[in-house]
Structures are given as structure tokens and as C-alpha cells.
Design goal:
By secondary structure, the chain is an alpha+beta fold. The chain is about 30% helix and about 20% strand. It has a six-stranded mixed sheet with strand order 2-3-4-5-6-7. α5 packs across α6 and α6 packs across α7. The protein is elongated. The relative contact order is 0.13.
Length: about 270
């Protein structure tokens, strides 16, 4: 699988190869890797204060030489951060690090290169900014968000700009995901969402609360399907009932979430 599974549709006119300023301190470059799993493609975020000379780059994206060269063309890079290790976010990180002579930092030490790793509560001071690290497991166990206080939160695949994300069982766990969404729901009002896929959103708290409502509704649907199917259905059988209105190309991704939901209902968190 070339990227992390995400549920949604491709935008009519995505912008590839063009750096787009989104907030005073964050610009996005869209990787040309669209698919049913990655929406329009992976958002690579370039962060810096207005008077800073270098960028912090979040999620260099896939191993696509043209995309990595384009990121590098916008100026020096101080650090490279990963929201999580799925390949559509991380595969290009090592090559990009060597290209721009900057370290890679992540929660999972597998992806850390040339520097120390990251953990919940860390504060990164770089390129004239302070970024607060939030541990937000659920989509994956190594998922992180990065908060630019008073402005925005970079959410990776924890909250998307369109559609919903999966809980990538067994690495991702639904109980963890509920707690991470509650954490994001408590961010100050009007904290923008800068997601790993899809367009930016105006309010992280509102988006997180919508995700919580959706997950709660899906969990109830799964519970009802289990009962209707005799109490011990396979995840695929549950998908066929609960996700009957979803394009079948996305059913394998939905099955990951159903496995996580079944585990949660069994008390496995």
C-alpha cells in the first residue's frame, strides 16, 4: 500500500508544485500522489516566522525526487518533522534530509535521523517559531500533532481536511483515538487545522468534536451489526453492513477501523 488509508474524494483542481501560504507562519506544498487513500495527495508544510531565513518542514511526503527538490528550492531547512511514519508522509524524509543537510525528528526512532526524537510535551524552537508537540495516538501509535499557539495545529492524519481517517489496527487503537480527539477539542477557539491531506479547516475544536460524533455513531452501527450478524461476525462482514454506502475500493481501509472498533467493544481499548 503506497500511503495511509484515508476516506474521501479527490478535489476537482488540486494545486501541485505551487507553494500556497495558508497562515502567517505556514505554507503548504501538495505532493502529486493522489489516490483514494491519500485524497489529493500529501500536504508538505513549510513553517517559519516572517523574518526567519530557514523553514521547518513537516512531512516531506513520498520518495518523489521532483517534490523533494521543489521543497528545497524555497530556502534553507532547519528541521524536518514527521507527524507519523506512514510512507506517504515519511518515505522521502531521509533523502530530503541528506539533500538539505537537516535532521529528521519523529516519535518513532525508526524515522529519526541526525537528531533526537520527539515526545508529547516537547517544545521545538526553530525558524523563529515555537511548536508544541502533542502526542495524539489512534490513527497510528506514533501520531503527533504540532501546535503553533494562537494560530494553528498540524494534525497529520489525525484530523483530515475532508472526510474521515482510519484507525490503523492493530497499531492504531480506538480508545487512544478518542482521547486524542478530546485533546484537540480543547484547543482554543479558531485554532486552524493544517492537515496531512485535504484543505485546511477553520477550527480544530469544532473538527475534533465532529470526528468524535462520527466515531461514536460508527461504533454504535458496528455494535448493532455485530448483534444482527449473530454476535461473532468477521470484520469484512461488518464492513459490508456498516459501510454499504461507501465505495468498495475503500472497504479494505474501512476494515482496519472495524477491527479497531471490534477490539474496543471487546474491552481491548
Amino acid at each position: 500500500m503506497s500511503g495511509s488509508p484515508l476516506i474521501g474524494a479527490r478535489a476537482a483542481h488540486p494545486l501541485y508544485g505551487e507553494l500556497r501560504q495558508v497562515t502567517p507562519h505556514a505554507a503548504v506544498l501538495l505532493a502529486d500522489n493522489p489516490s483514494p487513500m491519500t485524497l489529493d495527495g500529501t500536504n508538505t508544510w513549510l513553517l517559519k516566522a516572517l523574518d526567519a531565513e530557514s523553514y521547518v518542514v513537516v512531512d516531506p511526503g513520498p520518495l518523489d525526487g521532483a517534490h523533494l527538490e521543489r521543497i528545497a528550492s524555497f530556502g534553507p531547512v532547519s528541521e524536518i518533522l514527521l507527524t507519523h511514519g506512514h510512507p506517504d508522509h515519511s518515505d522521502g524524509a531521509r533523502e530530503f534530509a541528506e539533500l538539505v543537510k537537516a535532521p529528521v525528528r519523529a516519535l518513532d526512532p525508526t524515522f529519526t535521523y541526525g537528531s533526537e526524537g520527539l515526545r508529547d510535551g516537547d517544545v521545538i524552537t526553530s525558524s523563529g517559531l515555537e511548536l508544541r508537540v502533542l502526542g495524539t495516538p489512534g490513527h497510528t501509535s506514533d501520531s503527533l500533532c504540532f501546535v503553533i499557539d494562537g494560530e494553528a495545529v498540524l494534525t497529520g492524519d489525525t484530523v483530515l481536511g475532508r472526510g474521515t481517517t482510519i484507525v490503523a489496527h492493530p497499531d492504531g487503537r480506538l480508545g487512544d483515538y478518542f482521547e486524542s480527539l478530546k485533546l484537540l477539542a480543547d484547543l482554543p477557539e479558531h485554532t486552524a487545522v493544517l492537515p496531512g491531506h485535504g484543505p485546511e479547516l477553520a477550527d480544530a475544536g469544532e473538527a475534533a468534536r465532529m470526528y468524535l460524533a462520527h466515531r461514536t455513531q460508527r461504533l454504535e452501527q458496528v455494535r448493532n451489526a455485530v448483534e444482527a450478524l449473530g454476535g461473532a461476525p468477521t470484520p469484512r462482514e461488518v464492513v459490508e453492513v456498516v459501510y454499504a454506502d461507501v465505495d468498495r475500493v475503500l472497504w479494505p481501509a474501512a476494515e482496519w477501523s472495524v477491527r479497531a472498533q471490534l477490539e474496543y467493544l471487546r474491552g481491548g481499548y
